[in-house]
Design goal:
This protein is of the alpha+beta class. It has 2 domains: 2-112; 116-246, no CATH class. The protein is built from 7 helices and 9 strands; from the N terminus they run ββββαβααβαααββαβ. β3 and β4 form a beta hairpin.
């Protein structure tokens, strides 16, 4: 059965051909309905074979590339979930646009003038642990006793390790709440992602996707520069991107 693979939807009325930049070299173009433009390529209306991991990664990269190009062209786009195929050719796609017209318009309105940014917060765990051990009286006392070379030094070392673990968890929570509050005052919406593994020197303690109005970008940078100056903390800011993380809201 004939279908249309859909990458994203924009508010536009002109015909656009992006060329053979789609998945597997598909010819990407726009289909219109009442002020909406769907960015698509022709595709069989069948489920993909997901067993080839390398192929799926290549398709996902191609999908994102098309959405990025459409975003730069139209200014605001609503990214559609990876490997969404509307059955029935151009007529089926126009019918889908008509049935979902109100909701698509509403989502595009919420995203207009907004961009997505990624913010990862790292800390030097050894540095933070050392600072806690030296600045907290109870931990400092355990550290002294653990290094005294007495018969109870091992026991005090074990107690220090457990106390430090608890202290680090509280410190991470304190950092999270403080940083989140700063960013929350700037971003319209925030998605908290799972932290990723960094390297031996530093640990990721926050991984966020932010939806930010174009006029608040400098405010975001200013807040992140304050965070970046915190003892033992480092910031990575990525983007801007099309609002992938907020398209389903």
């Amino acid at each position: 059965m004939e279908g249309r693979y859909i990458y994203c939807v924009a508010e536009d009325g002109k015909d656009v051909s992006f060329g053979k930049i789609g998945i597997s070299g598909g010819e990407v173009y726009t289909v219109h309905f009442d002020g909406l433009a769907a960015v698509v390529h022709d595709a069989p209306a069948v489920s993909p074979d997901c067993r080839d991991r390398d192929k799926m990664i290549d398709w996902a990269v191609s999908h994102q590339r098309v959405v990025d190009m459409a975003w730069k062209m139209f200014g605001t786009v609503l990214p559609i979930r990876f490997h969404t195929i509307i059955k029935g050719g151009a007529d089926g796609l126009e019918q889908w646009l008509g049935q979902n017209h109100g909701e698509l318009r509403k989502k595009l309105s919420r995203l207009r003038g907004r961009k997505e940014y990624g913010v990862q917060v790292f800390w030097d765990a050894n540095h933070v642990a050392g600072r806690l051990a030296d600045s907290t009286p109870a931990l400092r006392d355990l550290k002294i006793k653990a290094g005294a070379g007495t018969g109870t030094a091992y026991l005090h070392g074990q107690l220090l390790e457990k106390a430090l673990k608890c202290g680090m968890e509280k410190e991470a929570q304190r950092f999270f709440e403080d940083i989140f509050k700063r960013i929350n005052d700037v971003a319209e919406r925030i998605v908290v992602e799972e932290p990723k593994q960094a390297d031996q020197q530093r640990q990721m303690i926050m991984n966020l996707s932010l939806l930010v109005h174009g006029g608040r970008y400098e405010d975001l940078k200013e807040e992140l520069e304050i965070v970046d100056r915190m003892d033992g903390i480092a910031i990575r800011l990525t983007g801007p991107w099309p609002p992938y993380s907020f398209a389903e809201e």
